[in-house]
Amino acid sequence: MQTVVLDKVPALGALYAQAALGATRRVRRVAPGSLPDVSAEAREVRISEESLIQYQRLLGDAVREEVPSVFLHGTVFPVALWLLARKDFPLPLLGMVHLSNHVRHLRPVRPSETLTLRAHARDLRVHRAGTQVDLISQVLVGEELVWEGRSVYLAKGVSLEGSSRPEAEPHPDFVPPATTGRWRLDATTGRRFAEVLGDFNPIHLSLVSAKLLGLKRPIAHGMYLAARALKSAAPHGVGYAWEIEFAVPVQLPGSVEFALTSATQSSVGPGTSDEEPGSVGFVGWDARKVRPHFAGSVVPLALAATVGAGTD
């Protein structure tokens, strides 16, 4: 695999603008072997302490000398998105649906540490609604891997040549657990999260920009929802693994019922982990329509074999 070393971490706004300029290309089908054999890398990256403090304040979290896991995801995400914005990437960036994240946060990372960021795409495969792909991201300090994640994305309506789409798997009826919190998200939530982590995807920013991409209203960033959940569920000072699956998007403005649960109670579909001692589940849902927005789990690293990022 060819590694492209980037001069600097790309600006996400510029990548989305680049994708918008190429959005006239309509992709209906892709070949199984069409992913570019390329990885991207950015070196000597320093975390902005100002952005980190803004992130912690946005979430109402304590200011610690420890970088939150979702903040690390946001730090490496522009390197991964650079791959999706390339002209030779087979799937369209705009309109891609974020399905899930699977992360191993191997040890606490200090804000003062210098990072290397790496990303590549793999495993183009069929989905009942189109074609999905994995984005593999890694954060290193020197030669030490400190964080790795697999983000799963779906290109709806794009067929994978030579594959037939599977039937939808039946899901059990969603039975909400006892509420432990209620999040009230105003119309500016997407913009404020974007200002901290730079993810200016137009589906999150305003009513006008969301409608241009076919949505009725802007929706919350999936990683904002993950960050809010991990604020309650993730430990501090140790390594851990976490995963989240997304179901119905959270429209802005809106509210989310939230609960910490056992890991087995948190599933929105197949693929979540079995309950392990020391694990914590979480789930967010729409109280009015009684349908899940997301669910996931956090597991101590010693127990995390079943929820690893799968980056090997």
TrEMBL record:
GO molecular function ontology, one term from the record: fatty acid synthase activity
Leader sequence residues: none
InterPro entries, A to Z: Fatty_acid_synthase, HotDog_dom_sf, MaoC-like_dom
Domain MaoC-like, chain residue ranges per copy: 181-258
One of the protein's GO biological processes: fatty acid biosynthetic process
Region (Disordered): 162-181
GO terms under cellular component: fatty acid synthase complex
PANTHER family: (3R)-HYDROXYACYL-ACP DEHYDRATASE SUBUNIT HADB, 3-HYDROXYACYL-THIOESTER DEHYDRATASE HTDX-RELATED
Family statement: Belongs to the enoyl-CoA hydratase/isomerase family.
Protein name: MaoC-like domain-containing protein
Organism this protein belongs to: Galactobacter caseinivorans
Phylogenetic lineage: Bacteria, Bacillati, Actinomycetota, Actinomycetes, Micrococcales
